[in-house]
Amino acid sequence: MPYPHVLLSAAVSLDGYLDDTGPERLLLSSPADFDRVDEVRASVDAILVGAGTIRADNPRLLVNSPERRAARVAEGRAEYPLKVTVSGSGDLDPAANFWHTGGEKLLYTTDAGAKRATALLGDTADVVPLGAGLDWRALLTHLHDVRGVRRLMVEGGGTVHTQLLRQGLADELQLVLAPLFVGDPAAPRLFGPGAYQGGRLRLTDTRRIEDVVLMRYEPTAPGTGPLETAADRHWLRTACELAALCPPSDTAFSVGAVIVAADGTELARGHSREGGDPVVHAEEAALAKLDRDDPRLPGATVYSSLEPCAHRASRPVPCAGLILEAGVRRVVTAWREPDTFVAAADGAGVLAAGGVEVVTVPGYAALAQRPNAHLPH
């Protein structure tokens, strides 16, 4: 399902505490970093905080710069991003700043919470019930499909950050480290305990901002089940971009593939017709770069812009067979193979019959099809 790009933003002390401690709030960020946050807010379509943050901090969540607001309007966007909160109970203070500043407001809640929230808030906010419980995937799908949100900034609190990271739904973490020790055992920490995805995050940027340091991270470890994660989308996008490197052909698809270990280490990549071989396939090219006995392969995920082939005339073993022989047990693809060259191709079926978890992410189909636009499909 298509989701917005989810950006988690937080400031934290050296001993791991968030900056909303006590009745007199301790501000960890510097003035220059507050301006950076304002810039990020101006760039996104929506800002989300949990109900606990509204109760504890009473934030306004505005774009403070008149110039940035004017630029949004000039681009045809609303002056302020959509403001979003989440509450299972729907028990929210209708006098909170959140509801009376900025632009549109949106509350996601449960069926039971929707009745209470509607009675409390009236027409102050759009109230969207998600069923008996709060489902983050349903929430993100609604934001993307119904409200047109493509970039979502999540400013807290710790419970929301924890849930999104544990479910593999955070595309990016922007973390500001302040040169302070808080030491209050009652202060909230950035993340709570739980089962997080394994692997190291990728550090994509560091920046000194006065006396604080901004660090940007992306998750790398593949998902482990039938649901796509943010890291899955990153690697699948990489595979689709590799397809653009293929020498053009009127008799074969242009496909890219990446093999990623369970800890997020890229093992190999390949693309169709790589290295001057006119018939090599992307998955075949990538697998050929690895030792067949590599112990990381059984836990790895193969990302392919097109469903691995189940039939081919140019080689004795199709790509689905090569993947099974390698012991890989998870494949993520963007596009099911059309009947252009092989009728009723079903590489996904061959893989599933061999015990492989096959995840299709149709939101990337258009990107996978782009280098194949000249072919009938």
Describe the sheet with the most strands. Answer: 9 strands, mixed
Quickly give the structural class: alpha/beta
Give the spatial strand order of the biggest sheet: 5-4-3-2-6-1-7-9-8
* N-C termini distance: 22 Å
Number of strands: 14
> Helicity level, as a percent range?
25-40%
In one word, what is the shape?
Answer: elongated
- Portion in strands: 15-25%
pLDDT average, as an integer?
A: 93
Residue stretches low in confidence (pLDDT < 50, at least 5 long) are: none
Task: Output the helix-strand order.
Answer: EHEHHEEHEHEHEEEHEEHEHEHEH
Please tell me how large the radius of gyration is. 23 Å
Could you walk me through the main structural features you see in this protein, from its secondary elements to its overall organization?
This protein is of the alpha/beta class and 377 residues long. The chain is 26% helix and 20% strand. The strands form two sheets. The protein has a nine-stranded mixed β-sheet with strand order 5-4-3-2-6-1-7-9-8. Strands 11-10-12-13-14 form a five-stranded mixed β-sheet, with helices on both faces. The radius of gyration is 23 Å and the shape is elongated.
